[in-house]
Amino acid sequence: MIGGVRALLMLTLAGCGRIGFGTTNDPADGPANSDAIGPLGDAPASAITVTFGERSDAMFTGVSKDTHLAQAQPTLNFGGAIELDLDGPPTADNLLILFDTTAIPVNATVFSASLDLMITDTASAEARLQAFRMLRDWNEGSSNGVGGAASWQQPTLAELWEEAGAGGSERDTTVVADVMGPFILNTPITIALLPDAVQRWVADKTTNFGLVVTQINGTDGTGFGSREEPRESFRPLLTVTYVP
Ligand SMILES: [Ca+2]
């Protein structure tokens, strides 16, 4: 029985072409989001859903860090800011976010994963974001526009990014999430994540350096509530459904 479930899951995961892209919140968001689908089919009855984030109703708290990197302010840290900024080049803002998922058993099979963000600065309709797994550590920092790390230039105070802005080989090439705007002020979005990304963190926590989120289209930036946002419901939340 368990083997059968696992086989089904592996088949599901193998069909990754349609897994983990787009948002699942609101079909009215536009055509780019309306085809957004998580894993095909329902989760098995034995599946467990857990939530991670700095909200009192999250199942696991004290588990996240987040910041953004500002190309126009390349030496400044924003780890303590209440907003996570995202913007496209030439003045890009890239967002870094990490959740400690060690509460999930290492042998679990991740069925689905999603990231809830609250939009605190609206972007133009053509805005598009993509997320990738980070492959190296970075400091959150606690500043809001003061010199420090992480910054556009540095992951930690002792090092430089291989490619500024958390680019190059220090991020994975697989697209973990791909979402088109419009992003509307004070509207929550649920971004479906490629389950394999979380699966890797679960199987080996030493590989969990979180995600970098980039805006690849549109010059009007987007803002999201950070874990420091005073309003709890504006803070990021990771939801994972897994089969033990
Ligand atoms: Ca932060």
> What is the count of β-strands?
13
Structural class: mainly beta
Small molecules in complex:
calcium ion
* Cα end-to-end separation: 13 Å
Strand content: 25-35%
Low-confidence segments, ≥5 residues, pLDDT <50?
1-37
Report on this model:
The protein is mainly beta. It has one domain. Helix content is 11%, strand content 31%. It has three helices and 13 strands, in the order ααββββββββββαβββ. It has helices spanning 2-14, 31-34, 195-203, and strands at 48-53, 64-70, 76-77, 83-86, 93-99, 109-121, 128-133, 146-147, 177-180, 188-193, 211-217, 222-225, 237-243. Strands 1, 4, 6, 10, 12 and 13 form a six-stranded antiparallel β-sheet that branches. It has a five-stranded antiparallel β-sheet with strand order 2-5-11-7-9, with no helix packed on it. A two-stranded antiparallel sheet has the order 3-8. The chain binds calcium ion. The site of calcium ion (CA) has 7 residues, from strand 2.
Short description:
This protein is mainly beta and 244 residues long. It has helices at 2-14, 31-34, 195-203; strands at 48-53, 64-70, 76-77, 83-86, 93-99, 109-121, 128-133, 146-147, 177-180, 188-193, 211-217, 222-225, 237-243.
In terms of topology, how is this protein built?
Blueprint lengths: L1 H13 L16 H4 L13 E6 L10 E7 L5 E2 L5 E4 L6 E7 L9 E13 L6 E6 L12 E2 L29 E4 L7 E6 L1 H9 L7 E7 L4 E4 L11 E7 L1
Antiparallel strand pairs: 1-13, 2-5, 3-8, 4-12, 5-11, 6-10, 6-12, 6-13, 7-9, 7-11
The protein binds calcium ion.
